[in-house]
Amino acid sequence: MTSSTWQERARDLQIDGRAFINGERVAARSERQFDNHSPIDGRLLGAVARCDGADVDIAVSAARAAFDDGRWASFAPAKRKRILLKFADLMQQNAAELALLETLDMGKPIKYSQAVDVAGAANCIRWYGEAIDKVYGEIAPTPANSLALITREPVGVVGAIVPWNYPMLMASWKIAPALAAGNSVILKPSEKSPLTALRMAELALQAGIPPGVFNVLPGFGNEAGSALALHMDVDCIAFTGSTRVGKQIMQMAGQSNLKRAWTELGGKSANILCADCPDLDAAVAASIGSIFFNQGESCNAPSRLFVEESIRARFIEKALALVPAYAPGDPLDDKTVMGAIVDDIQLKTVIGYIEQGKAAGAKLVTGGERVRLDTGGYYVAPTIFDNVTADMAIAREEIFGPVLSVLSFTDVKEAVRQANASPYGLHAAVWTADLTKAIQTSRALRAGTVHVNQYDNDDITVPFGGYKQSGNGRDKSLHAFDKYTELKTTWIQI
Ligand code: NAD
């Protein structure tokens, strides 16, 4: 579709910002709303329900009633599977609308909203639907006069709080395993990108997920979000977002009913590029592509590049040759690969870090400025800093924008030491043709995922999550069921 076709569709789009509780669209109890603007050009997309504690109480009651009467949890796993597969099908049938909502709301290029966000979210829902009638319990090797069954049961009412960078995908990583396991879910999307979550709830109902089982409450973190995390009748809170708020979530769980609290948090992923890497062009392309993908607004973006000193100049030269391809463009144009930063607040954060980098003495080799000002939207040129040192804020802190910090090393062990000297531990990478070095380095890196000679691989079958202050627990793969199920042991005397 051309940009003008997407624009036409955008004009015709009916946007409903009301909450979704107990199978119905409803206004916030207070009737308060907030304005939702598009980062593409600042246009007003519409008003969204500003839910707070009163709405959380209503949604939790609905979710609890749905869980307790077994209208979803008591379905045979094969029946839940069929409904989740239908939900995934409906997402694909409505892919253009969902992609358009995601791009308008969040600013990412439409081609990625389709190929990554809608496709990835539908695949995730399908995968957990497929999995749920293939997960078995266990029988423990106990003495002959007894039988001990180890079974998984749903935890009950799950509160899911997600960020704005991959709104549908992050939501599906939580709701798909939680629903597959038989829980009731209350999803709080980010106030910066609430639209696709609300539409997903309608599609889930249409697929056959009973009212009350999947609810969506848009609103602000310190209103709807904290009310959910503090609620005494929520059994589990599954959070993806910043490390700062993740710490508050753990505290709120402790302050209230000690609900299970799972956190998927920030990152400052280290990418170690050795002189003996098998293919420097491929390494440069993946390193640049991964930091600039999604406008750099990815938790696992390889934002700290450690390059061996002997190839540093060649790396910079090759990287600069690729940068023009990432020039920000109209997110509704199919050819655009870098879109808008999510809002003016995030724009100021990114520009603030760029200014800090310059002031600290890092060498700005490209970018470093806001672009496309005439659009009224929020765009930042892909930015690379060379000569970055470990003490600089741009080497230590998560920027969450299209900014690469290049540091150099002469001894790979020193690069690993610096890579690990971070509160974060989400992803890391090493590029080398030396098998021993690759294995030793990947073992030494303290991160939930380590990439060797690539950075792009991703699949629903593998766990995603971090060490240290990048969080606990894992999204994706069968391991995600650990978050949304309790293990029960049943002893039977024979
Ligand atoms: P954020 O922490 O500001 O907000 C995340 C969510 O928490 C939003 O829905 C927000 O409304 C809510 N929230 C904010 N304050 C709250 C409070 N006091 N109580 C309850 N909820 C509250 O993060 P963000 O800016 O939306 O997202 C960016 C962050 O998310 C980055 O740090 C990024 O690395 C991280 N992230 C991590 C992963 C992962 O899998 N590890 C994936 C995507 C994003």
UniProtKB/TrEMBL annotation:
InterPro entries in UniProt: Ald_DH/histidinol_DH, Ald_DH_C, Ald_DH_CS_CYS, Ald_DH_N, Aldehyde_DH_dom
Domain Aldehyde dehydrogenase: 29-489
Organism: Pseudoduganella plicata
Record has Kinase as a keyword: no
Protein name: Aldehyde dehydrogenase
CDD domains: ALDH_GABALDH-PuuC (cd07112)
Gene Ontology molecular-function annotations: aldehyde dehydrogenase [NAD(P)+] activity
Domain of life (superkingdom): Bacteria
UniProt keyword annotation of Ribonucleoprotein present: no
Key words, A-Z: Oxidoreductase
Family (UniProt): Belongs to the aldehyde dehydrogenase family.
